[in-house]
Amino acid sequence: PEVRGIADVDVGAARRLAGEIGVSRVSDDCRELLAAPDIDAVLVCSSTDTHADVVIDAATAGKQIFCEKPLDLDLGRIDAALAAVRRAGVRLMLGFNRRFDPDFRRVRDAVAAGAVGRPELLRITSRDPSPPPAEYVKRSGGMFLDMTIHDFDMARFVMDDEVEEVFVAAANLVDPAIGAAGDVDTAAIVLRFASGAIGTIDNSRRAVYGYDQRIEVFGSAGMVANANRTPHTAVHADASGFHAALPLNFFMERYSEAYAIELAAFVAALRAGTEPPVGGEDGRRAIVIGKAAGMSVKSGRPVRLSEVEATTAATAATGALA
Amino acid sequence: PEVRGIADVDVGAARRLAGEIGVSRVSDDCRELLAAPDIDAVLVCSSTDTHADVVIDAATAGKQIFCEKPLDLDLGRIDAALAAVRRAGVRLMLGFNRRFDPDFRRVRDAVAAGAVGRPELLRITSRDPSPPPAEYVKRSGGMFLDMTIHDFDMARFVMDDEVEEVFVAAANLVDPAIGAAGDVDTAAIVLRFASGAIGTIDNSRRAVYGYDQRIEVFGSAGMVANANRTPHTAVHADASGFHAALPLNFFMERYSEAYAIELAAFVAALRAGTEPPVGGEDGRRAIVIGKAAGMSVKSGRPVRLSEVEATTAATAATGALA
Amino acid sequence: PEVRGIADVDVGAARRLAGEIGVSRVSDDCRELLAAPDIDAVLVCSSTDTHADVVIDAATAGKQIFCEKPLDLDLGRIDAALAAVRRAGVRLMLGFNRRFDPDFRRVRDAVAAGAVGRPELLRITSRDPSPPPAEYVKRSGGMFLDMTIHDFDMARFVMDDEVEEVFVAAANLVDPAIGAAGDVDTAAIVLRFASGAIGTIDNSRRAVYGYDQRIEVFGSAGMVANANRTPHTAVHADASGFHAALPLNFFMERYSEAYAIELAAFVAALRAGTEPPVGGEDGRRAIVIGKAAGMSVKSGRPVRLSEVEATTAATAATGALA
Amino acid sequence: PEVRGIADVDVGAARRLAGEIGVSRVSDDCRELLAAPDIDAVLVCSSTDTHADVVIDAATAGKQIFCEKPLDLDLGRIDAALAAVRRAGVRLMLGFNRRFDPDFRRVRDAVAAGAVGRPELLRITSRDPSPPPAEYVKRSGGMFLDMTIHDFDMARFVMDDEVEEVFVAAANLVDPAIGAAGDVDTAAIVLRFASGAIGTIDNSRRAVYGYDQRIEVFGSAGMVANANRTPHTAVHADASGFHAALPLNFFMERYSEAYAIELAAFVAALRAGTEPPVGGEDGRRAIVIGKAAGMSVKSGRPVRLSEVEATTAATAATGALA
């Protein structure tokens, strides 16, 4: 595969990247590139609020599509985008990069191979090294749709199961500005799966020791869990103890290998003419879980995913009436 | 300290133990020993339903008391026992043995010393190697009052904080007989603390790899966590992987050191004339959390501890009227 | 088994210990106790230079004998003691306590069970937390006969093989007073076994992080290795790294369990009427390896154990002539 | 930097690689490329016996040179090549790739920063997953010049010290064909450093659990050690134990990152006009240690590096006379 063009509303940024990787076509309007007949597929990496429109335009132009998560924060717009993709008969892959991390992949493969028997408990620890600016939090849809969404997708992926109910206990402990922006930065989440299995996720926007990304699946025949990756394995012992390295600090270091594998998987699926390994429906479901999480925080009780769908349908109906 | 007598309703069992450790006084009625003027303190290790009565009798007899958890399953009877202890002016220590485990103690000491800053998230994993008979489950008060009660106490201990609300997602996945007896065997529990911190506990009655007892406290300045103890540290590598030992199988192995330290702490407190390190109120609070957990399972929503107290007061009032 | 008497040239020390453990018979002369008909077995824990004489006296008195290592530093005196034991038909167990450490035992059992196939390489790390006084070094026979002797015995034990040749590269890096006393405090030792396998031992009299006691056996089908034991398993993460506990500091902590198992094995062998698990010949062989190590340091070349025996025989012959 | 041409006596192989990476100039004679004025630097990756000639030709042509280890197996030819490089005033970097491995680099940096105080003991474990064909062993100069040479260089690198004496206990335990070819496949090596520190290396040509590459440096103030890298961090627990991944299988996986860093360091040194981080003298010294190791195996005694130099000088003198 070859990069044939780069579009960015900040055309200077597009030019810099194009220069670095030796690409000649640059634009400030992605529709210009979508019109190019020598472009087969597009990577949609723009800001979240543009994803749905770009995906619809790309699908309409007959391009194969890789879109960074989330597809959109609004289920109606997600459904519109998915419908456009279906109508156009193109492929859409959602950028849940962690599915391609070798450690998580190994956990999932072990579960799929029956290494833990029937999965009964899932435990995800997902803590960022430091919080984003409160400004970002406002636009991103909040912690559940921006950060935890990866964990919701991972829960479905490693368990090969669907979430039915979500309960959240959340708090604003890290940065008051995040609270002022109406969001939380610390949470414990309980998931109920269709199979009867139960999962927990714990999130924090600030782990001073770095990016903490661990998964554990426990079942009738055992347990499988990964550990964090470190930049080196050296351990130093002195009179005060044994000292080991911090984890790789954030997603650019932790998931660099995953990003490469992810793109290779997208290309491989296009070449084979098969469905990409993460589809639009996966993107939608993670958003539904995230919305249920938000509703749980507001209501202080567990929320079933069917309630999110019902609310959406009701809103859509109201919208239709208005 | 010297063991001066052993009472057991199964007097044969009392005689066997007395023979092993060289004790001459044996009885099938503990009140006989409670009447002995040369006995200063008693260890109440009988079945749960007798604890409150024996504690009341022992307190009335002026003995110092160590009582295995739980004091009782009924808050009214617990309060009666605690009142008897207070009236008699004797000391009462509750047998939360895990507080004396060197690993958990280290975790708690690190938290108390500020090593994690302000505690924000607690994570307790507590899984038994294999389920008890369903018959036992019926008499024991169920998983929350029999097994998780240790975790509830541990939560208070390591966080040095009070639980205010409990949410439970539980299931009967391990043994149908446990479900038939009206209990659960798998659970994810969310705790809210007075400080605003949040905790999770995950429980299973069956971990095929052995007794899984881990605690992690995460806070504004870091994290502290223990690992399971193993009978040996040897690792074996062959063409299929690296293989390490299972954890110590169950509480008799895992907590053998804790039991010894616990009794020494009881004796030391009596000699120093100070309050024992785990008091009757600690025993009561763990029961209240356990009852809230049960109410959460029944109601499907988070339950505040104040609701348990209100229910108890109402029941007591009804009882007073009757 | 019951302790029936304690003899110590420092009779005050004997009295203090007797008081602690409730023993009434105390003496400043062990021969007094050896004459007692109600004593079946003796534990010889006096200073090294007295071991051979006490063992001979005890054997002559028909007592079963546990003797702390080494039996003696002189092979002629060792042989005399072993002959006395044989003549008397009593059992003699040598106190190589590390054979009873659960971790080393597991390594050895794995090797014996074929888990590593044919053993090819052995690696022992044996480092003390801090050096003994130079005064002690002079009397103890030096590092090889006092400290490394445990590693020499362990090499024979885990490999179930005999050492044939020893090469040592040693130095005085830790404490100049040890060098002034004619000894070394740092060494790398290479062992050649009868089977063709090769082993290394590295020693230091000072590991600032504590007692470092690790063994690794590598063979045609894999590897088995232990790790150091720590007082707790808690790990603390902060912005500077992950921090874990130091090993148990020295032999009293590291091998407390081994000492208890060792004595139980002695008693069990006596009761069963079988050979104790560590015999006089084991004690002798470790000394021969230690002497070969000393000869290697002096000569700067590898030394075969047969050279030690030849030297001893020559000395004995000379002594016989004199 | 840009690859401007590829030469290989197997010109088909050169063409395939050129096609893969988009290079147009291909030759079966490296002298053709050495004559090209638009080529600044060359990577010498041909078979060992051609290294010296190609380096001399490249130096004469004024090219900057990266040469895979070893420069040659003959000290006379190494000296001739180094002299040619000096005369030409070009830079020469030797391909000791392990110096660029992040784990070993961290160990070395910790030692250089004083984290272990004065280094006293070094321990290198270096075991290949499976032996090379005996045919290769014959041409490669044998285990010490082909495999252990990396460890000899690593010893100098992490200790920042020079080896003065080598003792080897070696055996042919893995493959009889290796023995028939006059080589060994299993070894324990003791190094004496100029500082007085002591090191051990253990080697095997076959570790069934994969490539075992560990270093430990122990000193007056502590210890630093690395662990093996694994393809994933997942651990699986079942009723038989805890199971973890094998190490990355061999040098292509283990050192892929190191190779990239190594080449970047070569380019960076050329651009900065500084000496490359591994020079010709480093290549020569590792060979001298390797030859001393071979002499130790033959003679059964420790060999000083000065003996190797004396032998070489004598041979050179004889050669000059002949």
What does this structure look like?
The structure is a homotetramer of 322-residue chains. With 322 residues, chain A is α/β, with parallel strands linked by helices. Chain A is 43% helix and 22% strand. The first copy, chain A, is built from 13 helices and 14 strands. In chain A, the strands form four sheets. Chain A has a seven-stranded mixed β-sheet with strand order 11-10-6-9-8-7-14. In chain A, strand 1, helix 1 and strand 2 form a beta-alpha-beta unit. Chain A is globular, with a radius of gyration of 21 Å. The first copy, chain A, starts with 5 loop residues before the first strand and ends with a helix. Chains in contact: A-B, A-C, A-D, B-C, B-D, C-D. Chains A and B meet through strand 6, strand 7, strand 8 and strand 9 of A and strand 6, strand 7, strand 8 and strand 9 of B. Strand 13 of chain B pairs antiparallel with strand 13 of chain D.
